[in-house]
Write a structure and sequence with these properties.
This protein is an alpha+beta fold. Helices cover 36% and strands 32% of the residues.
Length: 146
């Protein structure tokens, strides 16, 4: 019997998948616990619509990632911080500071967890990488001044 999973089932598959199971397993275990539904024409069309919506969402996300990466590639982000003698900072410049500066200067919201940069404890220019979904990345420079 073909069923569409309504929730993740450990030994069977993930939510939304079409799987083939024995009739007894479906009637006695999956259906009463609302873990699966029968794969009739309505369920199959809903499954197909969900898959098409997911493909569209991924395509839009990929397009936006490419656009944002192209707009940020090679740019320099200016971050100001308090510094002492010889340009040594009080504290350090964090990825949150870099994300805030990118948001203010380029109007692109970037998650601070997606920015990889070395520890910035002195004034100067440092390379950083921003990772977007689906393997797209952009290299930027962080200019730290007083």
């Amino acid at each position: 019997m073909k069923v569409v999973l309504l929730q993740d089932v450990k030994s069977l598959g993930k939510k939304g998948e079409l799987v083939n199971v024995s009739d007894g397993y479906a009637r006695n275990f999956l259906f009463p616990r609302k873990l699966a539904g029968e794969a009739n024409s309505q369920a199959m069309s809903e499954l197909k619509n969900r898959e098409n919506a997911e493909k569209h969402r991924l395509a839009v996300e990929l397009e936006n990632s490419k656009k944002f990466a192209a707009s940020l590639e090679g740019k320099t982000v200016k971050v100001t911080a308090k510094a002492g003698a010889n340009g040594k900072l009080f504290g350090s410049v964090t990825t949150k500071d870099i994300a805030d500066a990118i948001s203010k200067q380029f109007s692109v919201n970037v998650d601070r967890h997606k920015i990889s940069a070395e520890d910035i404890k002195n004034c100067g220019t440092y390379p950083a990488e921003i990772k977007f979904p689906q393997g797209i990345s952009a290299n930027i420079f962080v200019l730290v001044t007083e």
